[in-house]
Each structure stands twice: as C-alpha cells, then as structure tokens.
Amino acid sequence: MLRDVIGDAGLAFYPQIALILFLLVFVSICIYVFMKKRSDWDAARYMPLQDTDQDCGDRNVAETIDGGKDEADG
Fold first, then answer.
1. Contact present, 37 and 45 (Cβ < 8 Å)
2. Which among 66, 46, 69 is positioned nearest to 56, based on CA atoms?
3. pLDDT in tens, the chain (74 residues)
4. How many Å apart are CA 21 and CA 13, to the nearest integer?
5. What 8-state DSSP symbol labels residue 49?
6. Rg of the chain's alpha carbons, rounded to an integer?
7. Bridge partners for 54 per DSSP
8. Cβ proximity of 54 and 60 under 8 Å
9. Where is the chain membrane-spanning (predicted)?
C-alpha cells in the first residue's frame, strides 16, 4: 500500500537530481584542487606548525582582526 502511494507521488526524479548535484560539486572540488598551484599547497602545508601569533606571513593575527590598528590608537 505504502509502495503504491510513494510510487504514484511522482518523486522518482529527486534521487537523480541529488546524484547530479553531488557529481557537479565533486567534480568542481576536484578541478579546484588540481588547478591550484604548488606554491599555494606549500604555503598551506606548514600552517598547523606555525605559531598562533602569525598568519602565514609577516602580519600578526591582531593586525588581521582589527585592520592594523594599535590598541593605543583607539
């Protein structure tokens, strides 16, 4: 009985749409990963090992958060 109700509801295309969306997202992530330059991966490679007061470069995290203002500037 339930199978007849669900079968007649016309919901058969939802799994197909979900599969197509999944494949589109998966392929786009793969393209993004493989198109990235090696230098970008090398910079991200050591991020977990850096000190907490550095933001992958010369700027401090405090400069990144407040836009470079010092506490004395107000």
1. no
2. 46
3. 777 877 777 777 888 999 999 999 999 999 999 998 888 888 888 887 777 665 555 555 555 555 555 555 55
4. 12
5. G
6. 24
7. 60
8. yes
9. 12-35
Residues in CB range of 48: below 8 A, 6 or more apart: none
pLDDT of residue 49: 76
pLDDT at 69: 56
21, burial (CB in 10 Å: exposed 0-12, middle 13-18, buried 19+): exposed
CA–CA dist 18, 21 (Å, integer): 5
pLDDT of residue 58: 52
In DSSP terms, which residues pair with 59 in a beta bridge? none
Q: What tokens does 22 get?
A: 């999944």
**Can you tell me which residue has the tokens 């199978």?**
3
User: What residues does 60 pair with on adjacent strands?
Assistant: 54
